[in-house]
Specification:
This protein is an all-alpha fold and 416 residues long. The protein has one domain (3-238, 331-407). The protein is built from 20 helices and no strands. It has helices at 3-30, 39-50, 67-77, 82-87, 89-122, 124-129, 136-155, 161-177, 180-195, 203-231, 241-248, 262-267, 269-273, 276-283, 288-305, 307-323, 335-359, 366-382, 389-393, 396-407. Helix 11 packs parallel to helix 15.
């Protein structure tokens, strides 16, 4: 083995081991006996799986997919305590950092690869959520793994079915973890089909991408069959879209598209004054399908009544996705300043890469352009719903790969 390869392998080992130890330590230091954020929901679904079901007549909502609850269910079967359940996310974070490194390495070398991997490992949004039973660690692991396998599959001279299947599995597990990616899968597939007659130079990559998406979708069919049996709807990824649209389009005085919980809607004085309690009492406890219809109907009414207000909410949502503000009727948190300091330079690098890449797109690898399309689909769709910074950072391995592929390879006098 050459000295360069040996150095790279040593760096990978340090990255993988260092990230694992970091998150084990953070989880131990931040451990608490009670459940916070969405932990209770994921743990409830996991326990239901160990008992042979997923949703129950008492809790008929299909809010999230089974990707993360399946991991927790396996750990629960061997009597893993709460600290152990939380600590398992350290494995996902270590893999996410390593996958990010491996994805970038062929395009920009190990220095750029290390930079992307370290941001994956150390970003404050992930350090904050990964020590708890939240999906960010698993989602970013799947996204980084998909980025590595997808670009390798499209870059290869011949069809490599092992890598294609790995990419398909990573995207399918991602979709089962964050069901919104089911919509990304379908929209991206439509774009791929539409591009086939016009982008002849990339026909091979388009076909491989289609195969990856088709296999991913096939892996998701059991879930779609389950939701069809429970809701009667085809291609039903979850049953909380109406609730998200309701808050995204609410334009009462003092509101800006920020999401509120069922409890907030009926107990927070400002929201009660805006009529949300009355609406929730009349519609929220209907059967799931009827409730979704009522919430979506109200969202459409909100759009027709105040399109400028809804547009303002959309702009505010970009602020929440990147920096965590503005929020309605809530004091801003100190983490906002940290996110401005960290995400601000990242946003500038993305804008610079977009400018350079736009001028030199013909020289960029086809797989990077397709990955960029997937990023735009995800972020564009996410911006329509109430957002948080943790929804954006999970796709950093894709964004980072795109940025360094442009700036690490094209930001030279001949390119600009």
């Amino acid at each position: 083995m050459s000295d360069a390869k040996s150095s790279t392998k040593h760096l990978e080992f340090l990255l993988l081991g260092g990230t694992l130890l970091l998150y084990i330590a953070v989880t131990i230091l931040s451990h608490r006996p009670d459940l916070i954020w969405d932990e209770g929901r994921y743990l409830w679904f996991a326990k239901s799986l160990t008992q042979g079901s997923y949703i129950t007549p008492e809790k008929p909502d299909i809010i999230n997919g089974p990707g993360y609850p399946l991991v927790l269910a396996g750990l629960l079967l061997v009597k893993t305590p709460l600290l152990g359940l939380r600590m398992f996310n350290a494995v996902f974070m270590a893999l996410a950092a390593w996958f990010s490194f491996r994805a970038v390495l062929p395009y920009a070398g190990k220095r750029w690869a290390l930079g992307v991997a370290l941001i994956t490992a150390l970003h404050p949004s992930l350090v904050r959520t990964a020590p708890y039973l939240m999906t960010e660690a698993l989602a970013v692991c799947c996204i980084a793994g998909f980025g590595w396998a997808f670009t390798a599959a499209l870059r290869a001279e011949k069809w490599n079915w092992l890598v294609i299947l790995a990419a398909a599995f990573a995207f399918a597990w991602l979709t089962m973890t964050r069901v919104f990616f089911g919509n990304v899968l379908m929209v991206f597939t439509v774009f791929l089909i539409a591009l086939l007659p016009f982008w002849q130079s990339q026909r091979g990559r388009l076909l491989r991408s289609l195969v990856v998406m088709a296999v991913s979708f096939a892996m998701c069919v059991p879930w779609l069959a389950y939701t069809k049996a429970k809701t009667g709807d085809m291609l039903c990824w979850s049953t909380n879209g109406g609730e998200l649209l309701y808050w995204a389009t609410s334009t009462h005085e003092g509101e800006n598209g920020h999401w509120f919980s069922e409890e907030d809607a009926q107990n927070k004085p400002e929201l009660v004054a805006n009529g949300h309690r009355d609406f929730y009492k009349a519609n929220y406890y209907l059967p799931v399908k009827e409730r979704e219809a009522a919430l979506k109907k109200k969202a459409l009414e909100n759009i027709r009544a105040n399109p400028k207000g809804v547009f303002k909410n959309w702009l505010c949502n970009w602020g929440r996705l990147i920096f965590g503000f503005p929020r309605s009727y809530q004091a801003e948190e100190l983490i906002m300043l940290v996110l401005v300091a960290v995400n601000g330079p990242l946003v500038l690098s993305v804008l610079l890469a977009f400018f350079v890449g736009w001028r030199n797109w013909r020289s960029l690898p086809g797989e990077i352009l397709l990955l960029a399309l997937m990023i735009f689909i995800y972020l564009g769709g996410t911006s329509l719903l109430p957002g948080l910074p943790r929804y954006t950072i999970v796709v950093w391995p894709w964004i980072g790969l795109g940025v360094v592929s442009v700036l690490g390879g094209c930001l030279k006098p001949r390119c600009v």
